[in-house]
Design the sequence.
């Protein structure tokens, strides 16, 4: 199976490297020519990367980027029968529209946004939320299993993005709760290590707590202990939370906690914290 992997950033590159290690024939491409240097095969043009590919995977920042890439790929009348797999996190309506375009052109389509951060991408332990028809999903599973250990199928195209919006809304809300709790603990004079060890083995335990503890020290591998180097940048968290709010508006569902999380992370990202890990928002909470 030959794979074209488009988008070699914080998530895309470790995913592509993982596929190489699993003996897939992979050609990577990114708008930044140097991004794919660690890969065995890094194409200089998009058309070169896509040539003869069975599966075309996109991991891009915004829906507009995915749409432009699909337009470029389909314009030269790519031979029918390819599988398009979008692992980006974009809005549901754009996903449904792109799926229709791809299917009409005679290709398969699966939306498969991920959770697990770059750590999970490198280790092959990502969680996938997927949407797509039965035939496309059957073709996608060998690739998904090479990249992750949890694949949850939600239905037709767009359902994976819907699940991701709900999932990341929980993450954003939880992150603010963890930050507020550590800020209060600090203001009360509690030892951060002791408080962390209490929470991780009690009812307050969560993936966010253990992997994105917002204060330096208690979790040595967390971004906070490494200068808030991004595992998942605050600007991306803000984007995902806005996508969740767009979905809430479209369905008429009120999500006040999600709305507040979107507001707080957007403000933080726009105030120069966007390239830091999302847990860096702690500084604004502790000082408020």
Sequence:
């Amino acid at each position: 199976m030959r794979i074209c992997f488009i988008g070699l950033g914080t998530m895309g590159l470790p995913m592509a490297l993982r596929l190489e290690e699993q003996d897939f024939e992979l050609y990577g491409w990114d708008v930044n020519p140097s991004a794919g240097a660690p890969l065995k095969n890094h194409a200089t043009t998009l058309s070169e990367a896509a040539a003869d590919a069975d599966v075309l995977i996109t991991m891009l920042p915004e829906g507009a980027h995915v749409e432009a890439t699909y337009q470029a790929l389909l314009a030269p009348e790519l031979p029918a029968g390819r599988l398009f797999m979008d692992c980006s996190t974009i809005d549901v309506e754009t996903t449904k529209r792109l799926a229709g375009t791809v299917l009409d052109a005679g290709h398969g389509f699966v939306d498969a946004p991920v959770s697990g951060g770059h750590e999970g991408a490198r280790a092959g332990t990502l969680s996938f939320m997927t949407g797509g028809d039965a035939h496309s999903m059957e073709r996608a599973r060998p690739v998904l299993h090479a990249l992750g250990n949890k694949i949850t199928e939600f239905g037709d195209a767009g359902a994976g993005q819907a699940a991701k919006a709900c999932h990341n809304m929980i993450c954003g809300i939880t992150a603010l709760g963890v930050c507020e709790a550590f800020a209060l603990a600090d203001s009360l004079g509690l030892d951060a290590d002791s408080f962390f060890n209490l929470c991780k083995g009690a009812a307050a335990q969560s993936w966010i707590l253990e992997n994105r503890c917002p204060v330096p020290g208690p979790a040595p591998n967390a971004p906070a202990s490494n200068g808030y180097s991004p595992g998942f940048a605050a600007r991306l968290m803000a984007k995902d939370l806005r996508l969740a709010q767009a979905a809430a508006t479209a369905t008429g569902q009120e999500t006040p906690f999600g709305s507040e999380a979107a507001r707080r992370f957007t403000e933080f990202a726009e105030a120069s914290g966007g390239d830091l890990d999302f847990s860096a928002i702690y500084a604004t909470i502790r000082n408020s």
Notes: The CA atoms of residues 3 and 54 lie 6 Å apart. The chain has a mean pLDDT of 96. The first strand starts at residue 2 and ends at 6. The chain has two domains: 2-156, 162-286.
